[in-house]
Specification:
It is built from six helices and seven strands; from the N terminus they run ααβαβαββαβαββ. It is of the alpha/beta class. The protein has a domain of 135 residues: 3-Layer(aba) Sandwich (Rossmann fold). The protein has a seven-stranded mixed sheet with strand order 3-2-1-4-5-7-6, with helices on both faces. Helix 3 links the parallel strand 1 and strand 2.
Length: 220
């Protein structure tokens, strides 16, 4: 997908039927992204939490285990069905999931004290970013925290990957609706094979570490 490309067929990707995609989705690592997990451990999350673009919802499930009330939203019915099934099998009653277009989200005005975007932002078409940021700001409670983990520009060879950002691009885009507190270098950890992951270093679990930014903001 190019930097101004169309929305990818996410449900086909999760079902493993999309052209050019095969096997498990590489960003589903069986646990929250380490950058997000560190924020949770540091006490940076407050209920209720919105997990925007939750996918298989490892972040939501981990938060629910710890007693947080979480709503996970995703465009893919396949991902949402898997997330709900996992919550049900684990007896997690404080996590709920819904198929939704996050860019036109309604019905949650002023609810969430924390909003987490773990690899959603760079998946959106560039021309929908503003709608997305406005929608989640409307769903946020006064003083809410907002965290975005997004691929850094240069993470992929030219013409490959989703819509990565520079730190200034991310900061300036988010700042229209949120007070940006920090943008710092980070990593997205992904399950890539030897060939696909050859360009990146690996963590101690053998996962590829792709350059990213971690943005922290709050609702002023």
């Amino acid at each position: 997908m190019t930097e101004d490309g169309p929305l990818l067929p996410w449900d086909d990707i999760y079902r493993g039927t999309a052209e050019g995609f095969s096997g498990p989705v590489p960003w589903n690592i069986g646990e929250p992204q380490p950058e997000i997990a560190r924020l949770i451990t540091a006490g940076r999350f407050r209920s209720d939490v919105l997990d925007a673009g939750c996918g298989y919802a490892e972040t939501s499930l981990s938060l629910a285990v710890q007693g947080y009330t979480v709503v996970g939203l995703d465009l893919s019915p396949t991902a949402i069905a898997a997330a709900q099934a996992a919550a049900t099998s684990r007896g997690l009653t404080t996590a709920s999931f819904r198929v939704a277009d996050i860019c036109s989200l309604t019905g949650f005005d002023g609810r969430f004290a924390t909003i987490v975007d773990s690899t959603l932002f760079h998946s959106l078409p560039v021309d929908r970013r503003r709608d997305y940021l406005r929608a989640v700001a409307r769903a946020a409670a006064p003083g809410a925290s907002f965290y975005i983990l997004a691929f850094a520009k240069g993470a992929f060879p030219d013409g490959q990957g989703p819509n990565p950002v520079t730190d200034e691009e991310l900061r300036e885009t988010v700042a229209e609706f949120w007070v940006v507190d920090d943008v710092r270098p980070a990593f997205v950890h992904a399950l890539l094979g030897e060939q696909d992951g050859a360009n990146w270093e690996r963590d101690d679990k053998g996962r590829s570490m792709l350059p990213a930014w971690l943005l922290s903001a709050h609702l002023g």
